[in-house]
Amino acid sequence: ETLLDLNEVGHTYRTRDGGGVEAIRSVTEQVRKGEFISILGPSGCGKSTLLMMIAGLLPTTRGAITLGGDPVLGPDPDSGIVLQDAVLFPWRTISRNIQLPGEIAGMPAAQRQARADELLSLVKLDGFGGAYPRELSGGMQQRAAIARSLMLSPSLLLMDEPFGALDAMTRDEMNVELKRICLEAGATVILVTHSISEAVFLSDRVMVLGNRPSTVREVVSIDAPRE
Ligand code: ADP
Ligand code: ADP
């Protein structure tokens, strides 16, 4: 069952001098429900550009994207997004940071709190709901950001180098946790990374982008079962 459909998707940035930077030329790809896909490629090849288009945060200048059959025309509560920096609000507790998308969507307080507790447990932050972001390590903050992105049970989870700012050992631990979280949540995930080993460890399939302007050069299926 196809969840996400990219049909000859491209983006050219307009520059101030009237020129253009073609970051993505044409990407055609389907993502099935429950798949974990990595977008892999060197710096500047257009990975973030592609992810931002999928998130509806950047328009396509070519082609079309559908999520669950509906065209992606703007930010969609059906996709959750996690960036390199957790960007938690420092004056809110971890639980209230996680609840934020629920507040914006008008979810009743009791329901939000119950969902936050469930998510705190999923990301192994039980007992930290009342803490403030500064009291948590970088890895814990990123786990809180993942919990926040799952608040509205998005059908698609998008991550741009979510652990890129962490040291290598913490990153390994986080990737093990991420794999478990995504399996437990049954999430469909698209992860941007420049690390081949990270992509191989986490994904079912890897989309390899070449140098700019990017088209998909290769889609590699990872045979090892995820467990
Ligand atoms: P990656 O995530 O793979 O590092 P990006 O998607 O960030 O790559 O960028 C792809 C290309 O588009 C790069 O050459 C970058 O310089 C260019 N680019 C990104 N954002 C803009 C922008 N706002 N205006 C012009 N060019 C941009
Ligand atoms: P980089 O070149 O970006 O520093 P590496 O290619 O050295 O990255 O490794 C990238 C990351 O892949 C590791 O830091 C880790 O997050 C992930 N990774 C690879 N194999 C495993 C594994 N067996 N368990 C957990 N994480 C792994």
Automatic annotation (TrEMBL):
Keywords: ATP-binding, Nucleotide-binding, Transport. Residues 4-227 form the ABC transporter domain. Transmembrane segments: none annotated. One of its GO terms (molecular function) is ATP binding. Belongs to the ABC transporter superfamily. This is NitT/TauT family transport system ATP-binding protein. It comes from Albimonas donghaensis.
